[in-house]
Specification:
The chain is α+β, with helices and mostly antiparallel strands and 547 residues long. It has three domains: 149 residues, no CATH class; 129 residues, 3-Layer(bba) Sandwich (Hepatocyte Growth Factor); 197 residues, Transferase(Phosphotransferase), domain 1 (Orthogonal Bundle), CATH 1.10.510. The protein contains ten helices and 32 strands. The strands form ten sheets. An eight-stranded mixed sheet has the order 15-14-22-18-23-20-21-19, with helices on one face. A four-stranded antiparallel sheet has the order 3-11-12-13, with no helix packed on it. The longest helix is centred in the C-terminal third of the chain and has 17 residues.
Length: 547
C-alpha cells in the first residue's frame, strides 16, 4: 500500500491491481459506461513474468459473464451468471458457495471468500488457462482442483456460428438441427470455425419478402442441458411471454428460460454452444416449420433388412453431415419393429417429378456430390428433394458395411435354386450392378452402375424399373446402347427437355451414364476419379469428381 501519512488515506494498493493471481476478497470489476476494467493478465511464459497475451475479467453485457481473451479475441467464457452459478460451468453446482457477483448498475464485480481453514486462489497461466488451486493448512503441496478451459469444446467459438460442441461425439462439432456446414470442405478437414448456415428460410422472413404460406409458422426445437450462446439479452418476463415474444419477433432466433432467473433471448448468430451431460440450461432454437412436420421410415418384417443393416444405417448416417445426404433425427427399435426418423423433405422423391433440363442437371450434380461423399446403391425413390429441389440421398442400410479398404465382398448369391432366371434378369436390369445380381460380388463400382442408371432415367424421363419401351432392349440402358450404336442417341432425350441449346450438355450426360452402366466393373469410372480419362465403344469423356 501507498499511504498518505498526513491523513492516513490509502493512495494506492497492489491488491486492486492484480497480475496473474485472483485472491480471496479481491475484486475483478468492469465499469458499464466506461472502458475501465480490472483484469488478470498472464505472464509471457512460466519463467518470464513480462506481460503475456491473455487477460481475464468480466464482460458485463446484459448478463455478467467471465471471459478470457487472447489479445482482443475471446478465448473462453463462463456462460451467463444466473445469480448462483455460471451456465457454462456445470461443475460449480454444489461445489462452491463462496462466489459473489455484484451488479450495482454502474459497476459489476466478482469476488469470493473461502469458508474453511484452507488457502484457495486462482491464476491465469501463460496458455490462457484459469487454474483454481487449493491447499489445506499443514499440507506442503498445492492441488489444482479446477481448470478452464478443460477441452476443445470450451474454446470460444470452436464450432463456429450455429454449431454445437460435445466432447463425447466424434467429431466433436455438429450443426444445430435445421442448419448445415457453411464450408463442407473445411468441415470435412475437422476445421469448424466457419460454422453452419440455415438450410431453410424462416417463415417470418418469407412473410417479409414474398408473402409466404399462411398457417406455416416457425417453431422451436429444444436443446437440453447446454451452455447457452454468447450475447444473451435478459428479460424479466414469464416463460410463456418469453416464447411468444420471441416467436412474434422475426429477429429473435432463440430463447431460454431458467426458473428463478428469467428469460434470455438471442438475435445475433448463435455461437459458443456446448452440450453437457448435466447442468446448463434448455435452449429453444427457431427453425422453419419443415424442420419440425418429420419423415418416418418403417421397415416391414419382410423387408430383408436385418438388425445389422438397420444399426449400420443408424450409425453411418448419424455420423455424417453433407447437404446432399438426408439427416437422421432419431430411431426406434422394439422387438421386431424398426423405425428411422428423418428430416422431412417437402418435395418428396425424385421418381415422382419431371423438370426442365437445368433443374435436372442440378439434381444430377447434387446426387454426384452426395455419392462422392458416401458410397451406396441408388434408385430414384431414395433421392429426396427439398423445397428448393436440392437432392438428398437416403436409405443407408448397406453403406460402409464393407471396410473402406475392401475392393469387393461376397454377399448372398443369386442362383437358380433361389430365383428364376426372370427375377435375375429383372434385378440385373434395374439399379443393381450385374456382378452383384449374378455373383453377389460387391465392389466400389456397385454404386457407379446405379448412378449411371439414375442418370439415364433423368435424361430420358423414363423409369427403368417399369421399362416397356422396347422388348428387344430389355432395359433402359439396353435401349440407350442400341440407340447409340445406331447413331440415334438423341431419340433417348425426353421431349420435355429436348432443347437444341442444351443438346451438347445432355449428350455428355448420356455418355457418362453409358460409361457407368458397362457390364464389367473394371470398365466403369470410379467415384473417386479426378480428371481421369475413360473410354468405351469409342466414347471418350473426362470425368471430374465422379460427375
Amino acid at each position: 500500500m501507498l499511504r498518505d501519512d498526513s491523513n492516513g488515506n490509502i493512495i494506492w494498493e497492489s491488491f486492486e491491481h492484480p497480475s496473474v493471481s485472483f485472491l480471496q476478497k479481491m475484486k475483478i470489476s468492469s465499469q458499464k459506461f466506461t472502458d475501465e476494467r480490472t483484469l488478470l493478465t498472464s505472464w509471457k511464459s512460466s519463467s518470464d513474468p513480462s506481460t503475456g497475451s491473455f487477460t481475464c475479467g468480466l464482460n458485463p453485457l446484459n448478463i455478467p459473464e467471465l471471459y478470457a481473451w487472447n489479445g482482443s479475441h475471446p478465448h473462453w467464457r463462463s456462460g451467463p451468471y444466473n445469480r448462483q452459478i455460471f451456465f457454462g460451468l456445470p461443475d460449480m453446482v454444489g461445489y462452491c458457495k463462496c462466489l459473489d457477483v455484484v451488479d450495482d448498475k454502474e459497476t459489476v464485480y466478482i469476488s469470493y471468500t473461502s469458508t474453511n481453514e484452507s488457502v484457495l486462489y486462482h491464476f491465469l497461466n501463460s496458455d490462457g488457462i484459469i487454474v483454481q488451486r487449493y491447499l489445506d493448512i499443514g499440507m506442503e503441496n498445492w492441488e489444482d482442483t479446477l481448470t478452464f478451459p478443460q477441452s476443445k469444446c470450451e474454446i470460444y467459438g470452436n464450432c463456429g456460428p450455429f454449431g454445437i460442441c460435445n466432447t463425447q461425439d466424434s467429431p466433436i462439432c455438429t450443426c444445430l438441427q435445421g442448419f448445415h456446414p457453411k464450408d463442407m470442405e473445411e468441415w470435412s478437414r475437422g476445421t469448424w470455425t466457419s460454422g453452419c448456415v440455415r438450410r431453410r428460410q424462416l417463415q417470418c422472413e418469407r412473410n417479409n419478402s414474398d408473402g409466404g404460406e399462411k398457417g406455416k409458422e416457425d417453431g422451436f426445437l429444444k436443446l437440453k442441458t447446454v451452455k447457452v450462446p454468447a450475447f444473451a439479452e435478459w428479460l424479466s418476463i414469464s416463460e410463456d411471454i418469453c416464447k411468444s415474444q420471441c416467436l412474434n419477433n422475426c429477429s429473435c432466433i432463440a430463447y431460454s428460460y431458467y426458473s428463478g432467473f428469467g428469460c434470455m433471448q438471442w438475435s445475433a448468430d448463435l455461437i459458443d454452444i456446448q452440450e453437457f451431460s448435466y447442468g446448463g440450461a434448455d435452449l429453444y432454437i427457431r427453425v422453419a416449420y419443415t424442420e419440425i412436420d418429420i419423415a418416418v421410415k418403417r421397415l416391414s418384417k419382410s423387408s430383408g433388412q436385418g438388425m445389422e443393416e438397420f444399426m449400420n444405417e443408424v450409425v453411418v448416417i448419424s455420423q455424417l453431415q453433407h447437404h446432399n445426404l438426408v439427416r437422421l433425427l432419431g430411431y426406434c427399435v422394439e422387438e421386431e419393429e424398426k423405425m428411422l426418423i428423418y428430416e422431412y423433405m417437402l418435395s418428396k422423391s425424385l421418381d415422382v417429378f419431371l423438370f426442365d433440363w437445368r433443374k435436372r442437371a442440378n439434381i444430377v450434380e447434387g446426387i454426384g456430390r452426395g455419392l462422392l461423399y458416401l458410397h451406396r446403391d441408388l434408385k430414384t425413390n431414395n433421392v429426396l428433394l427439398d423445397e428448393d429441389l436440392n437432392p438428398k440421398i437416403s436409405d443407408f442400410g448397406m453403406a460402409k458395411i464393407f471396410g473402406s479398404n475392401q475392393d469387393q465382398a461376397n454377399t448372398k448369391r443369386l442362383n437358380k435354386n433361389d430365383f428364376t432366371i426372370g427375377v435375375v434378369m429383372k434385378q440385373c436390369n434395374g439399379y443393381m450392378a450385374p456382378e452383384y445380381a449374378m455373383q453377389g460380388r460387391f465392389s466400389e463400382k456397385f454404386d457407379v452402375f446405379s448412378f449411371g442408371v439414375l442418370l439415364l432415367e433423368i435424361v430420358s424421363g423414363q423409369k427403368n424399373t417399369s421399362f416397356n419401351h422396347d422388348e428387344e432392349s430389355l432395359s433402359l440402358q439396353g435401349l440407350a446402347w442400341k440407340l447409340w450404336n445406331e447413331d440415334k442417341i438423341v431419340l433417348l432425350i425426353d421431349p420435355m427437355i429436348s432443347d437444341s441449346c442444351f443438346q451438347v450438355e445432355i449428350l455428355r450426360y448420356i455418355h457418362v451414364g453409358l460409361l457407368c452402366v458397362q457390364d464389367f466393373a473394371k470398365d466403369r469410372p470410379t467415384i473417386f476419379t479426378s480428371q481421369r480419362r475413360c473410354s468405351a465403344n469409342n466414347i471418350t469423356v473426362t470425368t471430374i469428381d465422379g460427375r
